[in-house]
Write a structure and sequence with these properties.
The chain is an alpha+beta fold and 234 residues long. The protein has one domain. 35% of the residues lie in helices and 14% in strands.
């Protein structure tokens, strides 16, 4: 795998912001109308805007961004087109969820959300994975993933926040209840690991061990850049 390279206005990259405790990730790209970011901010909240708007948001703030370098121009074209389609179709319909099942098939090729059943959803990190995976870029190996001791606590924290979210009403209780089965069982793909793997991907998916090491490099780079601070759920 290649090394992390800072994004500097190229066509496709990934970004990450957050705190020592919690990070948030998304896409950054130049679609010829200027550099923009696209990210799943929270439940039913797909967001697109300029980096300046993101940084100015009280729950977002400064970020580190990395170039997705080893993709062919035709592959970048396909990714950017798919992101545009997802944005047009799904601004307020992508649910937030902790399940690690069905990430590769979350979207149909027309950009619509597949019918994956009650409780299905994505995190900011698995949103990135869902796009890359759907288009044939297996940036990491989910079959090789491992559970970590802190995963159940994070699952509970997410679901507790979802229960309090007004956009979930009146279906909120059912959405959260359907996800309770995943607490301690779903794999957690951390934003820094997904961002790092997407940025350095060449042709082979990263193993769990490699992804964790890349993720640690991303967090260290964020510290050095001075961009770790408060951010929304990831």
């Amino acid at each position: 795998m290649s090394q992390l390279k800072d994004y500097a206005g190229s066509r496709l990259g990934v970004f990450i912001s957050g705190t020592e405790k919690q990070r948030h990730a998304g896409f950054i790209f130049d679609d010829e109308s200027g550099v923009e970011v696209l990210h799943l901010a929270w439940h039913f909240m797909l967001k697109r805007g300029t980096p300046e708007e993101y940084i100015a948001h009280p729950h977002m703030g400064p970020f580190a961004a990395y170039l997705c370098e080893d993709y062919l121009d035709s592959q970048v074209d396909e990714i950017l087109s798919f992101l545009d389609t997802i944005w047009v179709r799904n601004r307020n319909v992508i649910p937030y969820g902790i399940s690690s099942d069905g990430i590769e098939s979350f979207f149909e090729m027309d950009g619509s959300v597949a019918n994956l059943g009650e409780g299905a959803g994505l995190t900011c990190a698995s949103f990135l994975m869902s796009v890359f995976f759907k288009l044939g870029h297996k940036i990491l190996d989910p079959e090789n993933w491992q559970h970590r001791d802190t995963d159940p606590e994070w699952h509970d924290w997410v679901l507790s926040n979802l229960e309090q979210h007004p956009a979930l009403q009146p279906q909120g209780a059912a959405h959260v209840a359907a996800q309770r089965q995943y607490v301690g069982k779903a794999f957690r793909f951390r934003p820094e690991e997904v961002v790092g793997c997407a940025a350095v991907f060449e042709d082979e998916p990263a193993s769990f061990e490699v992804a964790v090491a890349i993720g640690e490099s991303v967090v260290q780079d964020m510290r050095q850049k001075g961009v770790l601070r408060n951010c929304c759920v990831a």
